[in-house]
Amino acid sequence: MDCLFCRIVAGEIPATIVRETATTLAFRDIDPKAPTHVLVIPKEHYVDVATLAQGAPELAGEVLQTAAVVAEEEGLTVDGFRLMFNTGPYGGQEVFHVHAHLLGGAPLGPMLC
Ligand code: 5GP
Ligand code: ZN
To answer: Which segment of this protein is annotated as the motif Histidine triad motif (predicted)?
Structure first.
């Protein structure tokens, strides 16, 4: 298995897990870009959000639901947060197992580019 996030799902690589459901996993980014930076993934391997949304829309919804619950648990819902999917090389995606970045805990300013 050469997918980093599949290896985290399998427990082969350690991660700080903040929430796990039957189909999704949320864990802290190893190099946080904000005071709170959590990655939310489906346990099943999909390359990117477009593939996930078209191939398994229900699972895509479960990823969003897990992200929303973690946002609440991390205390981000009052001041707000950013939820984003980098997609493909031009989108800045480096790990090709779809993941939502949940960022918050400080003003993030305008959209990053
Ligand atoms: P991308 O650029 O693909 O949207 O984001 C990949 C994210 O994965 C980056 O924010 C990076 O810091 C994070 N990351 C890379 N390797 C690891 C790892 O081994 N463990 C964790 N927890 N995060 C990782
Ligand atoms: Zn994977």
So the answer is: 97-101
